[in-house]
Amino acid sequence: MIEAENLCKHYAGVKAVDGVSFAIPRGVCFGLLGPNGAGKTTTVEMLEGIKTPSSGDIRYKGEPLGQRFRNEAGIMFQHTALQEFIRVDEVLKMFQQFYSHTRPIKELVEVCALEEFLTRDTRKLSGGQKQRLLLAIALINDPQVVFLDEPTTGLDPQSRRNLWHQVRRIKAENKTLVLTTHYMEEAFELCDEIIIMDHGVIIAQGNPKELLANHFDNSVITLPLSALPADFRADEASTLHPQDGQMEILSRDVDATIHYLAAQHIPLKQLQVRSPTLEDLFLELTGHHLRT
Amino acid sequence: MSIRRFLAALQARNLEFLRDRTALGWNLIMPVLIVMGFAFAFSTGQEELYKVGLYGQSEQDLAIHDFLQTRYVDFIAVDELERMIDKVDRHQIDLLLDLKNNRYWVNSSSPKGYLLEQLLAPYQLKREAVSGSEIRYVDWVIPGVLGMNIMFSALFGVGYVIVRYRKNGVLKRLRATPLSAFEFLSAQITSRLLMIVAVTVLVYAGTNLVVDFRMVGSYWLLLLILVLGALSMISVGLLVAARITSEEAANGLLNLISWPMMLLSGVWFSLEGSHPLVQNLALALPLTHMVDAARVVMIEGAGLADVTDQLFTLFLFTLCFVSIGSKTFRWE
Which of A142, B48, B139, B260 has a CA 20 to 30 Å removed from the CA of B1? Predict the structure, then answer.
């Protein structure tokens, strides 16, 4: 559906995106992950035709981005203001007029749950309501590809779950989705394929579950640092990653490691065992945390 | 160009303007207040200065040398006798001296003219009386105030608004749709022009109710002048907004453009007798041409042929600024 070849975007002395290539197949939910400043938004804005690449090539259905792409793409930006003093229903009608092929507004109102604030001034919407409206605008032309740039940043957990639900509905309609996020959990929940970016380059690419399986054959055991003696050493099956008052023990053999901990008379009351996450993968690949 | 997309963008901008009650109220009330203020301030007809036109030169200069030294009288050298006689007729100057032929013109109904005439009595010049009714300052200033209101509305309503759209992401959102820059800009220009015409008509009618002012020309011609003037200044706003991304920078630049226009375009006072440099500078400002044309139509009843130069100049300004503005326009 979309192919990016060796994309670069350079600003005075800064390489925001530095030689990124990938292909987004039709019908998948494609995630761009990375910490703030990794180059996700710049990359996605080049894909959206908003920013012009310094070099490299983008093709939509084999053609350079043009009027066809603008007619068939739906975009939800990270920061968007709408014209002021205009009601939700009027915004929808205006955007509907911009496209030749559109979805009925009634349907969008239902899909994005806009009914309760349909006649409200757009300035008076809550964060979650505004995101739902922006999503409805992104869907108004019944797009074949939908871009969502950090759609849940700043939303409360309930609004975030709500938006995930809507993204799943869009996926069910067999549309192609391009999603940027710095929430690993979100990417894991929604994406079929991801690229992880850091400092303008791709550091990992693939299906999220396969990526974890390929990089990790272990589980994470967490204990408070205060529960461990100062001279604590790992057993043969594990490695140690202390952070934020916690000790993360990456273990290939959970049973053996827990036996070892018990044998050391370490209190196991606050012990937690979990599978590795994309967050752990990012840490493993870059040596630093995602949200720092 | 898709008419459907253009109309959608136009309607959104119109709603935005009409529903912003504070700005709309300000647009309507401010000019009326200004005119009322002037009508009140000058209702006594007490201007500080006396104005005397000096036509030609002669040895008489020496003879009336003492008169030329009179304090609080502004002596202006003039070279168009007919036009200056008209000005005496309309009380725009208090007295006109033709030094070569030892004569002077004074309006029999002008109190200031009468006083100056008394001062002139010892020099025994020939009196030429005219008797036209007075053009009050408020009659003279109305076209200027209307023009000034149009200027502010055009510059800030287009320039500032587009920069705000760019900064807060409205432009980015619109760019991601099939709406073209041409359609978007046309909608902005049309919306602002419609609003300016509507507001100006209301302000004109409202002001006329409060201060019954002089309008002897054609209303259609006046409308044409106001439309062309508004377009030329909207296009200046467009030029300012083409690339700027900060509202503060736009605000500064728009003030930098609007204040000289307000002071040098003959809105408040005639530039007659001012430094030639200032007069030439004034010709580079669209507001000058609009106010000039509106003034001669309203006060003197000038026809289309009399204001062709100004209309043509305003058209050229528009063409020039719109071309550059739309060529350099950036969504981001």
Answer: A142
